[in-house]
Amino acid sequence: MPKVKTSRVRHPEGWERIEPTLLEFDQQMRDATSESHEGKRKAESLWPVFKITHQRTRYIYDLYYRKREISRELYEFCLEQGYADPGLIAKWKKSGYERLCCLRCIQVRDSNYGGTCICRVPKSKLEPGTVVECVNCGCRGCASCDV
Hints:
Pfam families: BUD31 (PF01125). Its main location: nucleus. It comes from Paratrimastix pyriformis. By secondary structure, this protein is mostly helical. The chain contains 4 helices and no strands. It has helices at 15-34, 47-66, 72-80, 86-92.
């Protein structure tokens, strides 16, 4: 006789500690997606979604790699369930990408001249007083050398 599959997901140990924060991020995501897009550019309406995704991924990354407060099992569970972006975390582990805002900013095919996004340019290389805002995600600068 085949096993009966249930829709319940078994949460690893330690889930109770991070669940309220993840539920708060989910509520923020729902609010951001239901927000009015009147008067905004097409890409600009997605900026809050990118920001919340970045914050949620950074939260899980910090808990596992920096603070060591969650187990590997819980970390992998969060990646499998889509609470964190594994591609973004993989980039954060590499030198020079510690503050990367989103993966679209390093895609050379998404730029006009085959380079990375303007937010990846160090602020010391820009003219003084220049305000930089990424077209993809609304980031104001995520170069690793900027503190």
